[in-house]
Design a protein that fits this description.
28% of the residues lie in helices and 29% in strands. It has helices at residues 29-34, 55-62, 78-86, 106-119, 159-168, 176-183, 247-259, 265-268, 281-294, 317-328, 346-349, and strands spanning 2-7, 23-24, 27-28, 43-50, 69-73, 93-98, 121-127, 132-134, 141-144, 149-158, 189-191, 210-222, 226-228, 231-233, 237-240, 299-307, 335-340, 353-362. Bound molecules: magnesium ion. Residues 216, 218, 241, 250 line the site of magnesium ion.
């Protein structure tokens, strides 16, 4: 009943990489754009338009997923690619979807197909949250915001009507809805989703959020300073280590490095390197944070637990948060810090050591 056309013959000029074959969590963008449609048994054929040199790669990826898939060579524009593909469609309805929209969901498709079956056309759209204006260098026309929509895909039409629109048109359109509007009638809208975005820039291929966890533990010893979160704690014993043995900074640094998939601080700052003898661990944390900034991420929040039998650490919480907030460039409210004893149990309970665990979210 439905043929799905995937428009994937674009040049990826703005992304600077081939976005269609780029990987998103272990699968290519192209696979992710197709897979949500496979659960609809009404879709009996898929036609994918790709640049000539990528047809074999497309077949290798898509043939194992769906038997009835045809890969065709795209034209010089999306308009011409879809026009060519459309000439091959024999089913009563045709769905057109961008190959660079990998976040399409079952719900979006369901809504789109049911509106198309009811009215003969369905264009996925979302209300614009921004005021839309027109003009190259200066604002020449204000389109506004009320009633303004951003068009996404899928777009579904009666095949004969869309073929008729293409036959009548001598100009190129950026999508099928504009063409249908001009030559047939106003198409109906179906509900899109802000997450159903089109991969346009390289940054669109990196995950929105990363999470990491870290853990550390140091012995308590006489004659050492007790440094926690960069603050000196008043206590007869301190933490023993090659650096200043700040367990909280170490757990936090490891959480950050782990979120970025980088080696932990033990490998980054070896404890047999004299350079790091009595090192200020705030500097190690700052080094981990530089890796965050380098990748254009920032810290959404951190949450850490310090496990110590003694001393009472709560009175230091505010100062520690202030210090970490400055290093991590994150408001104090987003730095969660809890302290716990171990009720006298184990090495922490016997006051032989202190441990800390930390979780971080980057965005
Ligand atoms: Mg450590």
């Amino acid at each position: 009943m439905f043929t799905l056309i995937i428009a994937a013959a674009g040049s990826s000029a703005r992304a600077g990489v081939n976005k269609i074959f780029a990987e998103l969590n272990g699968r290519t963008v192209l696979e992710r754009a197709v897979i949500p449609f496979l659960q609809f048994k009404e879709i009996t054929e898929i036609i994918v338009t790709l640049p000539k040199g990528q047809i074999a790669d497309g077949e290798k990826i898509l043939k194992p997923l769906f038997k009835n898939v045809l890969i065709t060579e795209g034209g010089n524009s999306r308009y011409l690619s879809v026009k060519n593909a459309l000439s091959l469609v024999k089913t009563p309805y045709v769905i057109v979807h961008d190959g660079a929209r990998p976040f399409v969901t079952k719900k979006i498709i369901e809504d789109n197909l049911s509106i198309a079956l009811k009215f003969g056309s369905a264009v996925t759209a979302i209300p614009s949250v921004d005021t839309v204006a027109f003009g190259e260098e200066t604002e020449e026309k204000i389109i506004g915001k009320t009633g303004v929509k951003n068009i996404q895909t899928p777009e579904t039409f009666l095949t004969e009507e869309l073929k008729q629109a293409y036959a009548l048109s001598s100009e190129e359109f950026t999508d099928e809805s504009g063409l249908y509007l001009k030559y047939i009638k106003p198409p109906h809208f179906s509900s899109g989703d802000i997450k159903n975005k089109k991969i346009t820039y390289k940054e669109d291929l990196t995950p929105d959020y990363l999470t990491g966890c870290g853990f550390d533990c140091h012995k308590l010893a006489e004659g050492r300073k007790f440094i926690l979160g960069g603050i000196e704690i008043d206590h007869p014993k301190g933490l023993l280590g090659h650096s200043d043995a700040d367990v909280l900074c170490h757990a936090l640094s490891d959480a950050i490095l782990s979120a970025l998939g980088l080696p932990d601080i033990g490998r980054r700052f070896p404890d047999d390197d004299p350079k790091f003898l009595n090192a200020n661990s705030i500097l190690l944390l700052n080094d981990a944070f530089c890796e965050v900034k380098k990748r254009n991420y920032s810290i959404t929040n951190v949450s850490a637990v310090v496990m110590a039998e003694k001393p009472k650490l709560n009175p230091y919480a505010d100062r520690i948060k202030e210090k970490l907030s400055a290093v991590l460039d994150t408001p104090k409210e987003y730095i969660g810090l809890t302290f716990t004893t171990l009720e006298g149990l184990g090495f922490i309970g016997r006051e032989e050591g202190v441990a800390a665990s930390a979780t971080v979210i980057l965005n």
